[in-house]
């Protein structure tokens, strides 16, 4: 039994003797001192453990910071090295392309010299007689163009021709006549020139089917590089010659008719266009890959996608009146709009004062852009307005569906370089307009349903006056019996 217990027991038993009291006090004091020393030892041990833990924690933090710094440095060096590699690779390919171009040019010059020399030898037969003997020609691979010859026959069935080229013979001939002065070539001593009709047919077939160039080459009996060159040349001619004529902003008389037609469709006054932005898939570019990465398509299709954008404004018949082509697929609809020439003209020149271009929720509400309500809890008036503005939005969406349906090259990644793609897309829009104006129908099997990946604009309200104007339009639609009840 320890001293503390003896002390308590003796106090309980009532010991009062002086000698006993002295002994008991000494015993109790000794017990308290022992406990105090033990407690101090425990506290000291805990303090030491806590300090040791702090030191260990600081050492781990220092090691982590050092490791993080090394990793960041390594990542920065790796990124810099990768960028330098891509830059050097692009320079290398550019030099190769330039060297190939120079080499081809020298080869053509050399071939022309050889042919000219051979012609001179033929003209002078060595007996002092100068004659007009048949000139030698550069050897060309013999390819069959029987399919095109069949299509080019006057008695070729109209339905089959339209199925192949998405347009009637008369519309095709119209395009050939319009482009004849620009794309026609003359025969040379090396080879006969490709006829204008065949040039246009190669381009339109390629756009309509999206077939690889090797299949286009077999079908028309031409070389692969020749077909590729023809597609770019004809598309460039369409953009330069036909776009100013068939794709332009309407004049005052046309705008008046467009307003009446849109108001007849929806009841919304002063609407002059329906606007929509779609994406065209592309092969991953060598530079600025992140800019062309399409996050929404990637998430929906579970496949990495890259694209460029096409923003278009159409009239009630689905004819494009304005297009903006080529901005990277990572940009939102409102960002593409701000980069467009239409936005600049509306901002600087007052092109769209007092009229509306109707868009979806991906565009902001501005003085000239009218969009639906997008808040969660809508009133009946707002529901009715959204229902009617949807009728105008559908016009542009269906026009893009016909555009992609006619020209299947827009549905797949093409073999065209990124810098040449806007020319090809512009040509598709012009050809679409010509077909729409000439009432060229489209096979229902070819129609494409455009998938809407619209996102609400970050800054959805750019004009308070437009907010009030939209509320007034919505009020008139509902209370004048112009809005339906499809939202109920």
TrEMBL record:
Compositional bias per record (Basic and acidic residues), positions renumbered to this chain: 53-70
Cofactors, names only: a divalent metal cation
Keyword Lyase: no
GO molecular function list: hydrolase activity; metal ion binding; nuclease activity
One GO cellular component term noted in the UniProt record for this chain: nucleus
Positions in coiled-coil regions: none
InterPro entries the record matches: HARBI1-like, HARBI1_dom
Compartment annotation: Nucleus
Biased composition (Acidic residues): 16-26
Residues covered by region (Disordered): 1-35, 53-76
Residue stretches making up the DDE Tnp4 domain: 276-433
Alphabetical keyword list: Hydrolase, Metal-binding, Nuclease, Nucleus
Family: Belongs to the HARBI1 family.
Name the UniProt record assigns to this protein: DDE Tnp4 domain-containing protein
Organism listed in the record: Gossypium davidsonii
Source taxonomy: Eukaryota, Viridiplantae, Streptophyta, Embryophyta, Tracheophyta
